[in-house]
Amino acid sequence: MTVTAGLDLAELEQYRTELRGYCYRMLGSTFDADDAVQETLVKAWQKADSFEGRSSVRSWLYRIATNVCLDSLRARGRRALPMDLSSPASPTQAPEHTLPDSAWLEPVPDADVAPMSADPALIVAHNDSIRLAFVAALQALPPKQRAVLILREVLCWQASEVAELLDTTVAGVNSAMQRARATLAEADLSSPSLASEADKDLLAKYVTAFEAYDIPSLVTLLREDAAISMPPISMWLQGTENVAAWYLGFGIGCKGSRLLPTVANGLPAFGQYRPDHENGGHLAWSLQVLEVVDGRIDHIHHFLDVERLFPRFGLGLRLPA
């Protein structure tokens, strides 16, 4: 059904994935991004009869999406990773302190945020800007600076286009961009290998060591200052000795796990299933996302919100015996 000449539901719907990528970077949450995109498309549909074609449909949708995200960000705090909130803990510290799911950055399946464009420059920008460290760093920016940086550096918009979208001046956009870059320059944005580039032999050895729970072999695959984290548990650990002590202490319940491969935020990832000693088989425990730097594992993120995340990644919540 067409509302105005040249603007119908199908034309709006084709931007859903691209808009989800934008909203994910703005909000740091896969599920919040879904809600923001749905609200954007509903508002666009409701306002379709007022669209006069003075800008492209894409620009118009981004204006609506930006306002939706800015409204959402006014109502809550920023999402983060455990490393953004505290110093590393001791492996003897019990994993008791948790924060609500709304406090944490969430991983996203690559297909959910893939760019529409086949432009190589946009694809490179997409790959770099979807990594967990970059999305976490974005959350430290004030919302409008965040929007400016994403639109300018990730989506490659001109400063004049961003100024029009945000109802500001080119000078204002350039000033916001400069401040955003200065903030990001202070963050650790080392570039872990994408899943397509990661050492397949390293990942195979990791799976073998983890499933065998051969911790001495596993830590040989890690960088000396490698870390592990477990949102919504707020603590995190750093250093191979501490990681080994954790897995052999409070983390011993992971012994006997199985790992199923996937990809999250462009990075190699695994659905981890721990043994179900009562009923047999294995139960979903965490989505592991690995950061690989210079041929060694630098960080293992264990995201424990499996009830929501596993279905999103096409993973079941149980493996039969």
Give the gist of this structure.
This protein is an alpha+beta fold. It has 2 domains: 2-185, Butyryl-CoA Dehydrogenase, subunit A, domain 3 (Up-down Bundle), CATH 1.20.140; 200-319, Nuclear Transport Factor 2, Chain: A. The protein has helices at residues 9-13, 16-27, 30-46, 57-74, 82-85, 120-129, 132-138, 143-154, 159-165, 170-185, 200-212, 215-219, 240-248, 306-312; strands at 2-4, 7-8, 222-230, 233-238, 258-264, 267-275, 282-293, 296-303, 318-319.
Span between termini: 50 Å
Q: State the low-pLDDT regions, or none.
A: 1-6
The CATH first-level class of the largest domain comes to: Mainly Alpha
Class of secondary structure makeup: alpha+beta
Radius of gyration: 21 Å
Shape, please?
globular
The CATH superfamily label of the largest domain reads PhyR, sigma-like (SL) domain
Number of domains: 2
Q: Would you kindly provide a written description of the structure presented here, covering whatever features stand out?
A:
There is one protein chain. The radius of gyration is 21 Å and the shape is globular. Helix 2 runs parallel beside helix 4 (57-74), helix 8 (143-154) crosses helix 10 and helix 9 (159-165) packs across helix 10. It folds into two domains: 2-185, PhyR, sigma-like (SL) domain (Butyryl-CoA Dehydrogenase, subunit A, domain 3), CATH 1.20.140.160; 200-319, Nuclear Transport Factor 2, Chain: A. The chain is built from 14 helices and nine strands. It starts with a strand and ends with a strand. The protein has 321 residues and is an alpha+beta fold. The strands form two sheets. Strands 3, 4, 5, 6, 7, 8 and 9 form a seven-stranded mixed sheet that branches. The chain has a two-stranded antiparallel sheet with strand order 1-2.
